[in-house]
Amino acid sequence: MTRRRNFLDYRLREVLPVLGICVLVINVVGYFGGFLLVDFSRRYNKAQFQQQPDQVGQARYLQTPSAAVPRLPNGSPRPSGVTTLTPTPSRAPGFSTATPRSTPRPLGGPVALSKSVVQHFDPCVATGGRAPNDGRWYNFTVSRFRFYAYTALVDDRDSILSDPVLRIIGLGSKVDDESSSMDVRLYCRYHYADNRQSVYVAMNRTVTKIGQGWALNNEWVREYIFTCPLPAIKTTPQAVTIVEAPGSAVVSCMPVEVPRRAAAGKKDDFAVCVQVAFDRLDPYRLTEWLELQWLLGVRRVGVYSMSLDRDSLQVLAHYVQDGYVDLRRSDYIEHGPDQHLIHGSPVINDCLYRHMHLFNYVVVVDFDEVVVPRRGCKSLRELVDVLRHNYSSLEYPPVNYIFYNNYYFLDLAPDTAISPYLTMMRYRKKAPVSPFGYSVKSIVNTQACLAMHNHFCWTLTPAYVKNSYPHVVDHSIAVNHHYKKCHLSETECAQLIRNSTEDDVLLQFKDVLQKRVDDRIFAIKGHNI
User: Fold this and answer.
1) How far is residue 84's CA from residue 101's CA, in Å, rounded to a whole number?
2) Is the pLDDT of residue 87 over 70?
3) 175-188, pLDDT tens digit by residue?
4) Which of 35, 336, 391, 506 yields a CA-CA distance of 20 to 30 A from 298?
């Protein structure tokens, strides 16, 4: 018996070190495997984005089956030229909206600090606003929730049917899709200019989604609008800090901004909001695009730069002097690639909230797109008047006008009789209109939208919830012109190019547009076109 026990003790002493090494190897592989899987997810998303750039972040739609007499959700007949869209929570092709299967880096893990991010320990500088060239993000991450804030704006619209609140636009750890509720309690600590004691107010646990989510710093985050009630104090706070509990050690803060208001009766009609701009925008195409938007009735363009080159900024700075372009920055949160995918929706919403009291409508398009009216309409104002007339019989008319995508591929032969500096005038051959729901763009009522995405308004303000079903405008009334080289499969490109037709709708602007672009290019570049 003693001999058997000695034998077992010997075998255990021999096996235990091997088991210990195996456990260590498994832990190491599991730890670093998480990073590799998240990195693979990021790289896969990048590859998909390059293959299908127009489907990024795009909701999947279900078309309401057409009947002999089309009906709206309330049972009333649908006006001609109106199509109902029902967004579903499905993900865009090639992109997962779920949390990656790998274990993300723990929130307490090391991250590369960036000078463009205000950290917890940075001093609170309550300025009451931020300069347009200040693109910093604010790190309010707590133990169980990653939190980066871009901007904090007071929302005092009558359409929210409540006292004014603070909208904090930023990024956070992905919350449950069904409840849209954070599993942590956060507080807004308000700072005032008159040195009164700081006030703590509990943040709403329900968050408002504005994007699909992306990998950041080896963790999956999503774009949100966070809401904090404002204290019942007449004075507006100058700054806010996001903390996990009153008395937290966080000392940094971000400015609280009150959007400017137009004088009574002086509100303009249209502003354009675009996704974050990076790398290079062709200065001549950018000039033509800005001038055509002006001719259509746009009076402000919100542009957010993230590493734009000198030529692009030179053009934009010229228009800033006129007050036509509102040029702002959005800096890298942590150093790494593909940040433009994360910044897109936050800057669009920043643009919406900044202009909600200055303009009646916001047009959300990209730099290679323009919503062009048809059927004799020569401006966006005339187009909206027609749409409002078409929907006037409805009890709850739409406030979110959606437009079909129509490609004008730059692979097709241009009109060589027109200046090479006028891309949209030269390339007038259009492919067939894109399928229902593909890469749509929109015009939205600034009083009605609470959460804007790159394609259409995802969430309406309480006063307009009954107007919430989006409508796609018939492409015979207006369409979104989209100018780019064909990025689809070789077969699809060949078919679309083969079926392209001439479209001269923009020629009505040719002479005045050429004169305006020529004047601007001479002022900016010193030569004529």
Assistant:
1) 35
2) no
3) 887 778 898 999 99
4) 391
Find residue 298's DSSP bridge partners: 270
At residue 340, φ and ψ (nearest 5 deg) are -60, -25
From 134-143, 209-218, 476-485, the region with the lowest mean pLDDT? 209-218
pLDDT, one tens digit per residue, over 500-525 is 999 999 999 999 999 999 999 999 99
DSSP lists the bridge partners of residue 442 as 364, 402
DSSP string, 331-382: --SSS-S-THHHHHHHHHHHHHHHHTTTEEEEEE--TTEEEEE-TT--SHHH
Per-residue model confidence as pLDDT tens digits over 103-117: 233 333 333 445 789
Nearest to 476 by CA among 397, 403, 401: 403
d(CA 452, CA 475) in angstroms, rounded, equals 23
State the Cα–Cα distance between residues 167 and 154, nearest whole angstrom.
Answer: 6
Q: Which phi and psi (to 5°) does residue 6 adopt? A: -65, -40
**117, 148 contact by CB (below 8 A):** yes
Side chain identity at residue 405, one-letter code: N
The dihedral over CA atoms of 382, 384, 386, 389, expressed in degrees to the nearest 10, equals -140
3-state helix, strand, coil in the chain (%, to 5): 30, 25, 45
Query: Residue 294 above 80 pLDDT?
Result: yes
Per-residue pLDDT at 369 exceeds 50: yes
Ordered DSSP codes for 107-132: TTS-----TTEE-TTSPP---SS--T
**Beta carbons of 410 and 431 less than 8 angstroms apart:** no
| Residue 171 or 39, more confident | 171
Give the H or E element holding residue 459. strand 457-460
Nearest Cα residue to 347 out of 398, 275, 415: 275
Are the C-beta atoms of residues 305 and 327 closer than 8 Å to each other? yes
List the structure tokens of 335.
Answer: 């150093």
- Tell me what the pLDDT averaged over the chain comes to: 82
**Predicted local distance difference test score (pLDDT) of residue 178:** 73
